[in-house]
């Protein structure tokens, strides 16, 4: 690593590279035990990921910091060229953690032949630009701000599981109205490339053992969400009610619509759990605020709302419906 | 005498003894595509005999060739299998409207293969118009299989049902389609009796049960029936008594309140199915109703429990009745204990797939670990295909597993947390995959995961001499890793890579390799447009396609798809696909 003195001026960075595993473990621990870093520090976190992807676990960054191996001239050229060329949408392949003291930056900046330095050069100006769009798009914007998480946030297309109920809202249509497309769109666990990253929250309904997951990014109002809840659970609810053993499946006109979710007049009411774990009635705050704090949705019997205590009761956790490969 | 002349005359002498018709007849017995390819290279005579005798064609990449070229070479095709989008499109890594539309193929086939009988498509875009076109233009059409396709709706299926008088197979698997209603099923005419395979398990709408029941009754050759979730248990019973000769069954919902009479009727119906070798569906099945199956499980070789979240004890009880099981797909709700039950009860097991029930869940206190896999390897020594989603793994466990089961041909391990090391030693998982490639000499397909350095790829390049498909994600340290693979694996055909630090040097190290491969996919790596341009310039017989989206900056090649082709650059590329 030319130009970087190996004296006490840059001990911390070298320490990182030398102690790859300890560092990695420390990061994992921090994730599981420590409080989430404040947003600006989060922006400085070392991470490996595709551009725009903010929330991934800290994969072994040191592989990329391996300055002993020869960098091919082509990839170096790429980095140099890019960094000078534009400031937008910098691919945050490597970003640096806050533990590097500020005094190190100028030292490393002298070195123009390493990836780490190039990134340092542009980090300050660019990462702020790179990250806000990412955080807006991150599909785990809400869970991310919650406490301990030993599993990482979902990445697009990972784990590699096939989901066959794709979002067809944007595909080439056949000129016919598609009332069910919406249902298909929300009934899957995909993270759709098209719509950016989805914001999926679990939704459970009283009396129905199987929950659903909804992508809140698909909706822009409480009305649409309420309509979606109706579509998603109407059939399930009717199936639960049908216990006659005659095996006659409920005809469409026997399925009652689930209405009045938002105004307290229906048989059911929509509530949600926010990031602090409190149960709240849906509909009080502006939609975008709701979307940023909601963690989980529940459809409760309106008659039971008054019975809820301070903490509310957790429903038994049932394995959610999945048909994936 | 000129040796070439003597060879020619010898050959023509042989040919005279062996008229073309006989040669064609002999070659018509060849089924395997690889054999046929080999045969066609022997001589011009054999090439011609082969092309005239070929009735089934398999095209692994629809853009590697044009339908005109296919039709010109093979005049007598009855069955076409086509694969379209890159496999990572299953995981939403390929934008919508990428292509792989079947219509241009159908247009040529209507002209050149009017007697086309079978069409099997995977990851293609199929519109309702195409389905209607198919139903209209091909009078002999018999078998339609659509796997992981998109672009059509149940309206298209209605057209197929209504018009294809000789249909024997309708197999709709896991597609992204508009399910408007189940009415399509009612479109089969009342005098239609030829169906042998019907799979609509992945559709969600109700179908007219009476129509289905009548259909099943009158199609005496029905062997494969996979219904969707809306079909209840008592409905299933009525279907089973009308189709006791089924060999493959996919049930609907297994959750229903049955009275004692219904229960025993259902049990008896299953008992009547003596030929069942494949069972799937079983949605929401619980310990309460699974026993109705037991009488039908004696000859079961494939049990697909992908759609039911069984616990370990429930699984164990079922497996006791399936001594001949060779393939098992389960959800990880069965846990390591469930896998121990597999090890105990399924000595003939060859294939195991364990899927995560809650892959995006934040709590990690469930699922399977290395001990479940280990247990299976001790009990099921014939294991050769594994797909395993887990949350933790160790190098030592994998080493033992492959020692127990050295015959793996497909080893797909997915440690769900990207870049996770051996959780006991905190070391990379290099040695695990090293053990796999060193021990399993027959390995054809490998998917790696966990924390991996270039060493993994050194091992792969050095030892995996039969490897054909390699999937890599969040792995590797430098270009050297990918280079090892490209320079080492002689039989490599498909390489798919995402989120790895491989750049232009790695990409270009495969210059000599790509024409012998079907395709290369690289996304979220370090490849740039410059590198791709160099590749495209050096290898004009490859299509080097770069997909741009909002996330990629100018110099970067965010998604790269490289494949060999005799068709030239795509003429139907959407605006976000650049062919260099």
From TrEMBL, chain A:
Gene3D superfamilies: Phosphatidylinositol 3-kinase Catalytic Subunit, Chain A, domain 1. The keyword Transcription applies. PROSITE patterns: PB1. GO terms for cellular component: nucleus. The keyword Repeat does not apply. Signal peptide: none annotated. Keywords: Auxin signaling pathway, Nucleus, Repressor, Transcription, Transcription regulation. Residues 198-302 form the PB1 domain. GO terms for biological process: auxin-activated signaling pathway; regulation of DNA-templated transcription. It is found in: Nucleus. Belongs to the Aux/IAA family. This is Auxin-responsive protein. It comes from Rhodamnia argentea.
From TrEMBL, chain B:
Residues 18-59 form the F-box domain. Gene3D superfamilies: 1.20.1280.50, Ribonuclease Inhibitor (3.80.10.10). It is found in: Nucleus. GO terms for cellular component: nucleus. One of its GO terms (biological process) is pollen maturation. Pathway: Protein modification; protein ubiquitination. Keywords: Auxin signaling pathway, Developmental protein, Nucleus, Ubl conjugation pathway. GO terms for molecular function: auxin binding. InterPro entries: COI1_F-box (IPR041567), F-box-like_dom_sf (IPR036047), F-box_dom (IPR001810), Leu-rich_rpt (IPR001611), Leu-rich_rpt_Cys-con_subtyp (IPR006553), LRR_dom_sf (IPR032675), Transp_inhibit (IPR041101). It comes from the Eukaryota. SMART domains: FBOX (SM00256), LRR_CC (SM00367). This is Protein TRANSPORT INHIBITOR RESPONSE 1-like.
């Amino acid at each position: 690593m030319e130009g970087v003195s190996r004296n006490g001026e840059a001990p911390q960075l070298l320490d990182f590279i030398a102690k790859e595993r300890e560092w990695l473990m420390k990061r994992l621990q921090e994730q599981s035990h420590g409080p989430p870093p404040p947003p600006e520090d989060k922006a400085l976190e070392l991470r490996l990921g595709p551009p725009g992807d903010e929330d991934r676990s800290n994969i072994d960054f040191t592989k990329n910091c391996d300055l002993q191996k020869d960098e091919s001239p082509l990839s170096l050229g790429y980095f140099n060229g890019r960094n000078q060329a534009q400031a937008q949408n910098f691919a945050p392949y490597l970003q640096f953690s806050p533990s590097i003291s500020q005094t190190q930056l100028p030292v490393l900046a002298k070195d123009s032949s390493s990836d780490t330095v190039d990134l340092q050069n542009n980090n300050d100006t660019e990462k702020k630009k790179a990250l806000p769009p990412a955080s807006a798009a991150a599909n785990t914007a809400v869970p991310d701000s919650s406490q301990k998480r030993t599993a990482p946030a979902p990445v697009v297309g990972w784990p590699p599981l096939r989901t066959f109920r794709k979002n067809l809202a944007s595909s080439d249509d056949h000129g016919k109205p598609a009332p069910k497309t919406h249902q298909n769109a929300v009934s899957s666990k995909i993270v759709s490339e098209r719509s950016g990253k989805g914001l999926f929250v679990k939704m459970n309904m009283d009396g129905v053992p199987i929950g659903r997951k909804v992508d809140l990014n698909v909706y822009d109002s409480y009305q649409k969400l309420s309509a979606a809840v109706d579509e998603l659970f109407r059939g399930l609810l009717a199936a639960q009610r049908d216990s006659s053993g005659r095996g006659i499946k409920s005809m469409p006109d026997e399925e009652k619509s689930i209405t009045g979710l938002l105004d307290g007049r229906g048989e059911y009411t929509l509530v949600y759990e926010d990031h602090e774990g409190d149960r709240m009635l849906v509909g009080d705050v502006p939609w975008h605020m709701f979307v940023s704090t909601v963690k989980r949705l529940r459809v409760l019997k309106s008659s039971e709302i008054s019975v809820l205590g301070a903490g509310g009761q957790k429903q038994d956790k049932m394995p959610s419906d999945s048909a994936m490969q | 005498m000129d040796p070439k002349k003597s060879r020619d005359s010898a050959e023509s002498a042989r040919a005279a003894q062996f008229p073309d018709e006989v040669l064609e007849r002999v070659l018509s017995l060849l089924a395997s595509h690889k054999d046929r390819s080999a045969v066609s290279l022997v001589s011009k005579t054999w090439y011609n005999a082969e092309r005239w005798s070929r009735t089934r064609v398999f095209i692994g990449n629809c853009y590697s060739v044009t339908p005109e070229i296919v039709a010109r070479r093979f005049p007598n095709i009855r069955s076409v299998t086509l694969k379209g989008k890159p496999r990572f499109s299953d995981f939403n890594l390929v934008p919508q409207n990428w292509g792989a539309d079947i219509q241009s193929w159908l247009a040529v086939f209507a002209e050149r293969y009017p007697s086309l009988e079978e069409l099997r498509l995977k990851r293609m875009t199929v519109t309702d118009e195409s389905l209607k076109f198919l139903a209209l233009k091909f009078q002999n059409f018999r078998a339609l299989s659509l796997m992981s396709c998109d672009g059509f709706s149940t309206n298209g299926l209605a057209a197929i049902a209504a018009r294809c008088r000789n249909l024997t197979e309708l197999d709709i698997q896991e597609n992204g389609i508009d399910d408007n209603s189940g009415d399509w099923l009612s479109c089969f005419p009342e005098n239609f009796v030829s169906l042998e395979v019907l799979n609509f398990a992945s559709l969600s709408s109700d179908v007219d049960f009476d129509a289905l029941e009548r259909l099943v009754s009158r199609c005496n050759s029905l062997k494969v029936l996979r219904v969707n979730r809306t079909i209840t248990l008592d409905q299933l019973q009525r279907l089973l008594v009308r189709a006791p000769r089924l060999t493959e069954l996919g049930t609907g919902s297994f959750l229903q309140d049955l009275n004692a009479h219904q229960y025993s009727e259902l049990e008896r119906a299953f008992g009547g199915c003596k030929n069942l070798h494949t069972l799937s569906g079983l949605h929401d099945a619980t310990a309460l109703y699974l026993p109705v199956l037991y009488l039908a499980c004696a000859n079961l070789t494939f049990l697909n429990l992908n759609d039911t979240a069984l616990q370990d004890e429930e699984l164990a009880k079922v497996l006791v009745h399936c001594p001949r099981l060779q393939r098992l797909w389960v959800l990880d709700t069965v846990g390591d204990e469930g896998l121990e039950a597999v090890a105990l009860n399924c000595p003939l097991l060859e294939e195991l797939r364990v899927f995560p029930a809650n892959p995006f869940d934040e709590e990690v206190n469930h699922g399977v670990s290395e001990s479940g896999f280990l247990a299976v390897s001790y009990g099921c020594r014939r294991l050769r295909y594994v797909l395993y989603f887990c949350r933790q793994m160790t190098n030592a466990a994998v080493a033992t597993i492959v020692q127990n089961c050295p015959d793996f041909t497909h080893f797909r391990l997915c440690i769900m947390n990207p870049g996770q090391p051996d959780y006991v030693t905190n070391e990379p998982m290099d040695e695990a995959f090293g053990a796999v490639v060193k021990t399993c000499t027959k390995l054809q397909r490998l998917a790696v995961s966990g924390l991996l350095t270039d060493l993994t790829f050194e091992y792969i390049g050095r030892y995996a001499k039969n490897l054909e498909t390699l999937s890599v994600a969040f792995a590797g340290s430098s270009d050297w890793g990918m280079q090892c693979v490209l320079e080492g694996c002689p039989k490599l055909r498909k390489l798919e890579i995402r989120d790895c630090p491989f750049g232009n040097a790695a990409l270009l190290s495969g210059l000599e390799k790509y024409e012998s491969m079907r395709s290369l996919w690289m996304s979220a790596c370090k490849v740039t447009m410059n590198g791709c341009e160099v590749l495209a310039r050096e290898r004009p017989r490859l299509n080097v396609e770069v997909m741009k989206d909002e996330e990629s900056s100018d110099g970067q090649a965010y998604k790269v798809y490289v494949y060999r082709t005799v068709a030239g650059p795509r003429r139907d590329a959407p605006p976000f696909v650049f062919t260099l």
